[in-house]
Structure prediction request, 349 residues.
Amino acid sequence: MSQQILAEVEKSSLKADVQPFDIGDTVDVHTKILEGNKERIQIFSGVVIARSGSGTREMFVVRRIVAGEGVERKFPVHSPRIDKIEVKRKSVVRRAKLYFLRERSGKAVRLKERRG
Amino acid sequence: MTKGILGRKVGMTQIFLADGTAVPVTVIEAGPCSVLQIRTVDRDGYESVQLGFGSKPRRLAARSERGHVAKLDSKRRKKLSAAGVEVLAKADCDPPRFIRELRGAANGLEVGKQITVDVLNGCEAVDVIGYTKGCGYQGAMKRHGFKGQRATHGVKKVHRHMGGTGALASNRGGGRMKKGKKMPGQYGNERVTMRNLKVARIDSDKNLLLVRGGIPGPAGAYVIVRETNKVGS
Prediction:
């Protein structure tokens, strides 16, 4: 009973139309950013290396390389600040968490593309 | 009556505000409560309103509990009414699980009326009163946050003990120990008031109240919610 009530409460904060994406996908995350009074869209693109949690607490981690330095950003899937998530490329991965990419650099970071 | 209501802790979750801030909230199933009794200065010496929340099945409710909320047809009652003793007004509801009084004059409330979470409409912050989770008999480290003793340097099997309790240690030479010296003992299961919790949302259709942050007790625990008495918040 309690869990049902909690699920109902969470429902109000969940997005109905979350773009489906998988681990290993290269995505563009469009985030809304407030600059003064103006709202602007900023894009963070990289590889989804983890997804965790459930309900409103569901998060995903996007990793990219900026100027030779690995940068990871963690987003709440249902955050109203995320405008949309665009999948650019899907790839073949065999695990749910791609933390091994952190130890790799250069060509070794590449993931094989999944087609079809 | 103080603006307030009885309820049950459902659990914690997270919601997003319109601007994207994630807020940790506790969900409280607040009300509906029936007014069971009005205490007056004339009759009881003080003013308050007795509320009941939840409902007990008949098998769990003693006769006195059932008689508190409804008129029972009994021989004794008949005798009393024959003698001219007036029956107090009854709420005419199921025997409640949780009964508490909220202080203050009734202000138009009558026995049998329902109070919903709407009474808290317009409240920015509330106080939540409940009983913390009982942890049983705990040592001084867990109960009071003592540091314990060293792992080495001659410490013998007293690593989690409190320090000295001699009069010198606890009272600077008073000849006896200070009253209230922090020691191991029962931890938790005590009445706690969490004050000034911000109201995140009120859902009157589902009788839900969402407050920011945590409240005492396990999920399913009964709590009293009232408008905060904290000033200057």
The helical segments of chain A are 2-11. Chain A touches chain B at residues 2-3, 5-6, 8-10, 12-13, 32, 55-57, 76, 78-81 (CB under 8 Å). The radius of gyration of chain A is 16 Å. Strands of chain A lie at 26-35, 38-52, 59-66, 69-76, 82-89.
